[in-house]
Amino acid sequence: MEIDPQHLDKAAGYQLMISLLIPRPIAWVGSWDGEKTDNLAPFSYFMGVSAQPPRVAISVARGRGGSLKHTARNILATGEFSISMVEEEALGPMHQTSGAWEQSEFDAVGIARAPGQVIRPPRVRDARVAMECKLVQSVDLESTHLFIGEVLLYHIAEGLLKNGRVDIENYHPMARLGGEGYCSLGSRVDLPPVRV
Ligand SMILES: Cc1cc2nc3c(=O)[nH]c(=O)nc-3n(C[C@H](O)[C@H](O)[C@H](O)COP(=O)(O)O)c2cc1C
């Protein structure tokens, strides 16, 4: 079967894309408006794009009528954002923060903040992995903004690292599937590096 994406309407194109590219890690993004209100929302168009310097990317679609979501507006205004990683016990609260709240989702959903150390936006206090990021580049892709951020500071819970890597036996990130689905890590396979 072949599908020409030009023949799909916006909703069908979105549903197809998010069900094909799975599982996706979830960036729980903290931002602030440059005045007094902070914001927290999940984004699963999220990936690491370079390690040296460490850079990550998120993609924030336009909202209804082409308006900017709070996260996009805030990042464009301040050039800063935090990313907290979502583990199993935070799944429900994270999902709640995807609602179109007018007030800060930290307050609306009751999520404790930790203050940024090198940026102004807070992060999720209880997240065992978080990053403080500064905007390096934003790309306006019309229906969406791609934001590339440099990680200025990692926050990693004591005991979570083993030999410089996250201890996978002790880390339980949630990922997004298509539709309304989420998943945790499945079975693991180790393969040695390929030396040619
Ligand atoms: C798990 C999850 C992942 C999401 N990923 C994205 C995404 O990658 N891009 C996007 O624009 N919206 C995404 N959303 C929807 C936003 O979280 C939602 O539009 C939210 O209201 C934006 O909040 P804001 O206006 O406070 O920025 C996602 C929602 C959930 C629950």
Summarize model confidence as the mean pLDDT. 97
Please tell me what the overall shape is. globular
- Strand % is 35-45%
Oligomer: single chain
Number of domains: 1
Characteristic key phrases:
single chain, 196 residues, alpha+beta, Pnp Oxidase, Chain A, 7-stranded antiparallel beta sheet, 3-stranded antiparallel beta sheet, 4 helices, 16% helix, 36% strand, binds flavin mononucleotide
Would you give an account of this structure?
This protein has helices spanning 10-20, 70-78, 91-96, 105-109; strands at residues 24-25, 27-32, 38-43, 46-51, 54-61, 80-85, 113-114, 123-124, 129-140, 144-156, 161-162, 165-166, 175-176, 182-183. By secondary structure, the protein is of the alpha+beta class. The protein has a single domain, classed as Pnp Oxidase, Chain A (Roll), CATH 2.30.110.10. It has a 7-stranded antiparallel beta sheet with strand order 3-2-6-9-10-5-4, covered by helices on one side. A hairpin with a 2-residue loop joins strand 4 and strand 5 (54-61). It starts with 9 loop residues before the first helix and ends in a 13-residue tail after the last strand. Bound molecules: flavin mononucleotide.
Short characterization:
The protein has about 200 residues and is an alpha+beta fold. Helix content is about 15%, strand content about 35%.
Q: What is the topology?
A:
Layout: H1 10-20, E1 24-25, E2 27-32, E3 38-43, E4 46-51, E5 54-61, H2 70-78, E6 80-85, H3 91-96, H4 105-109, E7 113-114, E8 123-124, E9 129-140, E10 144-156, E11 161-162, E12 165-166, E13 175-176, E14 182-183
Antiparallel strand pairs: 1-13, 2-3, 2-6, 4-5, 5-10, 6-9, 7-8, 9-10, 11-12, 13-14
The structure holds flavin mononucleotide.
